């Protein structure tokens, strides 16, 4: 289920704010009835009309993008910086990212035009593993990493326990490569976790989302998700089953 104004915006009817005004003005019908409540939730099986014109049901598409660094996880940017939709010039559907990766973080990002699917994957109860590889300034000791494994206090509360593995360490350069797996999605969470133990992240990439990996892709490349992959993600979200 998805909020009505959000579905209208995703369909290209109007901006989110203008879509809300259309609803308040009584210009939107759902299954033949005028709807004026902004909290109304609808599904793609509902028949929606805007000013007497029925909303076309767009074919749903699902992509896995290897987002490069220096790209915004958005459909547009007021500073004219490169955005993730720039990599999908040949896709006619109005797709958008599921969640986000920071401007300076690379890695796996899902793109779709399916609002219900996107909501499932970003719901707070949806505890799915996301694995990152971080290059750190400094070489953490085992006891440092164990703090992250137990959960560490950030300004917005305690983190859930993470899985952490030291992949390599270079005493000459004073740098380390660490793999970390979390299932939360707070803003810049991985960077803040390493800051909290005194080892700032110099480079960060999301290598895995649930069972999905970047195998076979270079930065800036993408592929369609298979119907089976989409179904598995839905099942994981709806059942709360972690991978």
From TrEMBL:
Gene3D superfamilies: Alpha-L RNA-binding motif, Pseudouridine synthase I, catalytic domain, N-terminal subdomain, RNA-binding S4 domain. Residues 2-65 form the RNA-binding S4 domain. GO terms for cellular component: cytosol. GO terms for biological process: enzyme-directed rRNA pseudouridine synthesis. The keyword Secreted does not apply. Its EC number is 5.4.99.-. Transmembrane segments: none annotated. GO terms for molecular function: RNA binding; rRNA pseudouridine synthase activity. It is an enzyme of class 5 (isomerase). SMART domains: S4. CDD domains: PseudoU_synth_RsuA_like, S4. Keywords: Isomerase, RNA-binding. Belongs to the pseudouridine synthase RsuA family. This is Pseudouridine synthase. It comes from Planomicrobium soli.
